[in-house]
């Protein structure tokens, strides 16, 4: 019973429609028995079923100063009742109300993306008071600087900084990755992610309205309120179209007795049928439900379109431009190969390298520490970090160097590197890898090759784009050799290298002249001008706020394969919209001709017309289940 009550509260319009339908059924039964109660029941069914239609018509007429399809339906139902067709008038309103109710429910279904997002973050948080006690407060009341406790298994209530030494957090809600990640003291923790291990303390760094999830929710809401150009045009046409129909129907009623020799009653009845079948209900519903369904489906997939107009522009994209670092690649160097002049020295050299790199915060040092977490450092002497070159230190009286070739190796002792070793080094350098040398007293001991690794999904993403007949371009500040090697590795069509940040926007303009509509994918502040210049800008969710604000589409989960998904669903949306428009116009024309030929009556006209509206809505809702 409780579920029924909740459903009625959430679906008032459909509830009145159902009651209206039941009254019509009872009215038909009483009518067969010549009961005087039939007509009052039809009138009551008319009032209940048409309640929301009347409110919509009144709101648009009084507040917006425009006419809508509700006016046509009410006028047709009232007209039918005037000439004694009470049952037909009530049935017309019922079927129209049913179509409107189904559309309202379908639009509510497309808002589930927001509802699900809002459930992710908790409404309350455990806040430390000045006395050190814990008080449960509303999340909306939290301020920057507040200290919170997050217990095991709880969702983090708001964005902040970790105070404990370490914590294990499941970020699947943000990244889509099922494996938990370890956060260390000072790292950012995001509201809505889950604490999987021991309780930890954190400090709030943003107001509730500025959290990542709040931004996502705002983006989805704004997208659903932002109509496409096609939808806007149809909405503009609706007012004019309704006025034309309202002016034409009286002329139709007056002229038809003269043209077809109908009786006035038949002409009036046919006028009411015309009011019904000429209504652009299906046409009006051709675009918005499709766009909203596609936006909601995309949001559930971690893709935030900033409106229906963006989706329309995405349909026309002919080429996708990628920034390399942090977009196609992980954005951090990794040790991908190591080589030792003497294999027996491997353990010692690894220990010495880690001993030196531990003192640095350089990305290369971070790569070494990540690659060799189990290696134990040794005690070294006179360590010197020489900026732009590397490290020099003493170990057991010998001088060791770690760094680039010119710094680490004694130029007079190049022969210490064997020809086969040198070929291996050159091969790594030709692939754009950074080679770090290790020497002892100027003699070559080992080398490590580091590279900014491609993201696992980069190659498949490029293939999917090619399957959609979309060209791919890569922009990078790297030298040409490195850029071309990466492009060949993943199948990029066009490469622009040695670029400065300010060059990217001008390159986008040049590519627009070549390809037409261009999409740009980026993640950093330096990508913002290019994102703004492109026809459609994609920003990665892990990128900067500037990139996310500038872009038209945000990929929350940093999944590159969502780019071809975005292009594909936008194309499918356009196809469905065109299907809906052609179908709805065809039905209107067919029903108008049938009315002139007197082959349909009012109930059939209503069923045909409103049935087309329901079919258009159901066709649009297919996008909620769209697959790659």
TrEMBL record:
The chain crosses the membrane at residues 12-30, 36-55, 67-85, 241-262, 268-290, 581-600, 606-624. It is found in: Cell membrane. NCBIfam families: ATPase-IB_hvy, ATPase_P-type. SUPFAM superfamilies: Calcium ATPase, transduction domain A, Calcium ATPase, transmembrane domain M, HAD-like. InterPro entries: ATPase_P-typ_cyto_dom_N, ATPase_P-typ_P_site, ATPase_P-typ_TM_dom_sf, ATPase_P-typ_transduc_dom_A_sf, ATPase_P-type_domA, Cation_Transport_ATPase, HAD-like_sf, HAD_sf. Gene3D superfamilies: Calcium-transporting ATPase, cytoplasmic domain N, Calcium-transporting ATPase, cytoplasmic transduction domain A, HAD superfamily/HAD-like. Keywords: ATP-binding, Cell membrane, Ion transport, Magnesium, Membrane, Metal-binding, Nucleotide-binding, Translocase, Transmembrane, Transmembrane helix, Transport. This is Heavy metal translocating P-type ATPase. It is a multi-pass membrane protein. GO terms for molecular function: ATP binding; ATP hydrolysis activity; ATPase-coupled monoatomic cation transmembrane transporter activity; metal ion binding. Belongs to the cation transport ATPase (P-type) (TC 3.A.3) family. Type IB subfamily. One of its GO terms (cellular component) is plasma membrane. Residues 120-221 form the P-type ATPase A domain. The keyword ATP-binding applies. It comes from the Bacteria. Pfam families: E1-E2_ATPase (PF00122), Hydrolase (PF00702). The keyword Cell cycle does not apply.
